[in-house]
Design brief:
Blueprint: H1 22-31, H2 35-48, H3 50-61, H4 66-82, H5 87-98, H6 104-117, H7 123-127, H8 135-147
Helix pairs in contact: 2-3, 2-4, 3-4, 4-6, 5-6, 6-8
Length: 151
């Protein structure tokens, strides 16, 4: 890859899904908001190598781009779904990222993702967004709370 390719090149790891590398996956997810297509791509990617998916999600969460940060949060939540051994560390990363997120899209993704970890300690952080100005964020809170033990 040329030095002018995306910043993600610096964080790429060996290809594990035939024909799809990290850069291509991120470009596809940014370009295609179709939920079914997104779930197919992410599900295949995470099932193939959950640790690789986690490394990519961490890189995306550190991005200066809100759409990439949102994808990073979504991807990390899916890693927790497929690999329960990583849920505690994933919850830590997501809750830490939530303290600095400002964009409603990023906040919504960071709120939805802890629901996949089923970590009860996320309740307090999620409840802090229950009265958020954005309806999508409030919806994410409502969906995530039952998964972390709040009925």
């Amino acid at each position: 890859m040329s030095p002018s390719s995306s910043w993600l090149t610096l964080y790429s790891v060996p290809q594990s899904i035939p024909g799809v590398n990290d850069d291509e996956l991120v470009r596809e997810l940014l370009a295609d908001p179709d939920a079914d297509r997104w779930l197919t791509l992410v599900g295949s990617y995470v099932r193939e190598d959950p640790w690789r998916a986690r490394r990519l999600s961490e890189s995306l969460l550190a991005s200066g781009s809100d759409p990439e940060r949102a994808i990073g949060a979504d991807l990390m939540g899916q890693v927790a779904t497929f690999d329960s051994a990583q849920t505690e560390e994933i919850a830590d990363a997501l809750l830490a990222a939530l303290t600095t997120a400002a964009s409603p899209a990023v906040v919504g993704s960071l709120i939805a993702a802890p629901g996949h970890t089923r970590e009860e300690r996320a309740k307090g952080a999620l409840l802090g967004f229950a009265d958020h100005a954005e309806a999508d964020v409030r919806f994410s809170v409502a969906v995530a709370l039952p998964a972390v033990g709040f009925d």
